[in-house]
């Protein structure tokens, strides 16, 4: 039985097949409308995440399946001291596949050990959030036509941003990838990722402090949120916050085919005036998130249509 | 694309068609059992409301569709500072139609602005609760055979009762409507509704303090709750509370065809001994609430059976 | 209309039919995959219980039906002062059958009084939890081939354990049942059950303090949790806690066909090393819990396949 714990659980070749399937689903959704009839997805969310939970649920419904589960730890047996491993063995009696979010790093790994059903890691602490990464890859591949030979700007909180770390790990497997890391000093990409991932694999990258400096050379811009709390002092925050807000004026500096991604929710780091720009792809990204999860569910359940 | 934000969004003619559809659903539910197969309803409840949420969910299930969503703001991304408008754009990727309840007045209006799917306002603060009004209208029309030429008693908290205000707005569009407003001084219908709606349209009405005085002349009685907290002093509350409790003795004063409605939940304003009276229509009203929401979903999704 | 409020609501003969149906569902689940198409189960959980709720939901989905409801009192109208009886009348408009868990003893009895749909008591305070008992009986009958002529060990908290009390009531209806009651002095089976149930029906039983002393003579062992808080003093707890932990060493003392049951969740009263023992039946028990609930839903809805 196969699980999805880390975005690297799938080889580049397997990912290609998964994304081909997702694009086929996008093109001909009616072909898949009953693929999971009689199957049930359990969504076990030990911490709330509407977006991720609903995305999995939408995926299962689009495949004709059912969904059960819980949306926060309060309403789960976790409070009675049951181990995640036992919960999964129980859930294996109730469902055919499960998506689990847990505040503890490594929880998904423990969960799948005795699970009788495939486990999708829907986020384990600050560790992994592989379905977001798969959605990001599918979005990029669908919009640009390929995943290699690209200059990708990563902007915002590169220090704590789990999404960005996962995406880097996933993208360096493709040839010709270059990064422009756009962040304040305080929120730079951690040294261990720079040395262990970028340097070791000879991935070219540069670090800049202003979004405007990076925009002209990007094929793709991946935005994330810069939280005020992350800054050491108010002064720095006030000085720099506008550097990381994407607006219509800044978009004029960007190439015509530079798509903008964002894992959402956004607060104010992308101005709403950008939403109508054809390069704004963050809502499409949410849609691709459903397609890739549909493909993932089919693949893990070994259902061929 | 069409939404339901206010009960007046539909013209009288459109309402007639909607209610005809609801009555056809009541008569031949099996005809509609698969009308929404493959469609998904999102229930976005930023504040809990079991009754309204479950009524929409039941409606969608009766049409063969699916349901996803959240039942309180805690388990939603609202806490991450996402705008309602963004949430709706995201939900448009996950569902085909949505029902939203939000504590803020006007939230539904904002939500539908960028929504890619029809929005049903399931209550926005003290503002509107249009599907309750539609359910009320359908119940009256189904039981009495018409919506015009009636004397309607509105009893209880007429000051803060959103349901009653909406119902007045909706009923004054029909000819020959007269109101008897039954409430304590403290909870009288607000002046702006009396002047802007009743007086302006020359709708006859009288105000009385005792339910007993009104009952003999009513074609229909709409009960609401009188909350103790609304009174200025305990003495007034004790003196008057029984005036607004409907019991078997009071029902003897009412005409034989005077149906009793109540939006529910009731606490003690209708004695349980009234439940067996054939004129007690408040549980039927809950049932009509499902039929009208089925009709509404079909209409907003432009599905013809 | 029929409800399930107490495990004794069904005669021994009716239980046999129910368990036959459950075993047929186990053998040929596909036969039942659409038995409840178009039907809706309401899960009304006034206190959270993931396991019981999901088990009912899984049962309904396996029968091709839909599910709606709430998983805690917070998100219900209970907070508005509505009576359980009114809630059930409302829910009767939304669903075809309901499973209700409520913290108050007797709530289910009140609920079904005016209900328009069958009510399954999914636990009412410390009173009854009949579907657990039905699951226990089905598990025993499926594994042992019969429910009579057996020596059954009940281990742990026999004083407060609702599950154990219900199981005793249910098992004494079969001939040749003997009990070994294994518990610390503080947590012994209450006198009123010993006198009113065991003594009155001449059911042989013995009381022992150590699990090891009981194991060799058992046909079946039913484990429950011993909570530290139940002990009068820390000393007693430390002295005795290991007596009630089942591990691989203790399993060596048990007969080869002595199955181990546990209502779950377990904390540490069964060591995980026992999980691989073929006599460990507690996860099978969870699976049988789904089959018996499927049989129950079909029976209460009077659906024949």
From TrEMBL, chains A, B, C:
Provide the catalytic activity annotation: carbamoyl phosphate + L-aspartate = N-carbamoyl-L-aspartate + phosphate + H(+)
- Could you cite one Gene Ontology molecular function of this protein? aspartate carbamoyltransferase activity
Taxonomically, which superkingdom? Bacteria
Per UniProt, the keywords (alphabetical) are: Pyrimidine biosynthesis, Transferase
Q: What class of enzyme is it?
A: transferase
Q: In which pathway does it act?
A: Pyrimidine metabolism; UMP biosynthesis via de novo pathway; (S)-dihydroorotate from bicarbonate: step 2/3
- What residue stretches are annotated with the Aspartate/ornithine carbamoyltransferase carbamoyl-P binding domain? 2-141
The record's function comment reads: Catalyzes the condensation of carbamoyl phosphate and aspartate to form carbamoyl aspartate and inorganic phosphate, the committed step in the de novo pyrimidine nucleotide biosynthesis pathway.
Q: How does it assemble?
A: Heterododecamer (2C3:3R2) of six catalytic PyrB chains organized as two trimers (C3), and six regulatory PyrI chains organized as three dimers (R2).
Q: Which HAMAP family match?
A: Asp_carb_tr (MF_00001)
**Can you say what this protein is called?**
Aspartate carbamoyltransferase
Organism expressing this protein natively:
Dorea hominis
């Amino acid at each position: 039985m196969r699980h999805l714990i880390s975005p690297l659980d799938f080889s580049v070749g397997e990912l290609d097949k998964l994304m081909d399937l997702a694009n086929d689903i996008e093109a001909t959704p009616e072909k898949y409308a009953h693929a999971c009839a009689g199957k049930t997805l359990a969504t076990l969310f030990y911490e709330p995440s509407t977006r991720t939970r609903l995305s999995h649920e939408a995926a299962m419904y689009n495949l004709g399946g059912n969904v059960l589960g819980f949306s926060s730890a309060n309403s789960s047996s976790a409070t009675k001291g049951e181990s995640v491993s036992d919960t999964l063995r129980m859930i294996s009696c109730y469902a055919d596949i499960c998506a689990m979010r847990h505040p503890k790093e490594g929880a998904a790994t423990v969960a799948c050990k005795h699970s009788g059903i495939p486990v999708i890691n829907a986020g384990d602490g600050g560790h992994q959030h592989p379905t977001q990464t798969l959605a990001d890859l599918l979005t990029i591949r669908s919009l640009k036509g390929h995943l290699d030979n690209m200059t990708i700007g990563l902007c915002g909180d590169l220090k704590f941003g789990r999404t960005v770390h996962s995406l880097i790990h996933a993208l360096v497997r493709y040839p010709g990838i270059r990064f422009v890391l756009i962040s304040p000093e305080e929120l730079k990409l951690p040294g261990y990722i720079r040395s262990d991932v970028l340097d070791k694999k000879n991935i070219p990258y540069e670090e800049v402090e202003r979004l405007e400096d990076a925009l002209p050379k990007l094929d793709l811009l991946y935005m994330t949120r810069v939280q005020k709390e992350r800054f050491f002092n108010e002064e720095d925050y006030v000085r720099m916050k506008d550097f990381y807000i994407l607006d219509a004026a800044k978009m004029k500096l960007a190439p015509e085919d530079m798509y903008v991604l964002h894992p959402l929710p956004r607060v104010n780091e992308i101005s709403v005036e950008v939403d109508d720009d054809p390069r704004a792809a963050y809502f499409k990204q949410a849609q691709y998130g459903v397609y890739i999860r549909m493909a993932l569910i089919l693949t893990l359940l070994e259902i061929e249509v």
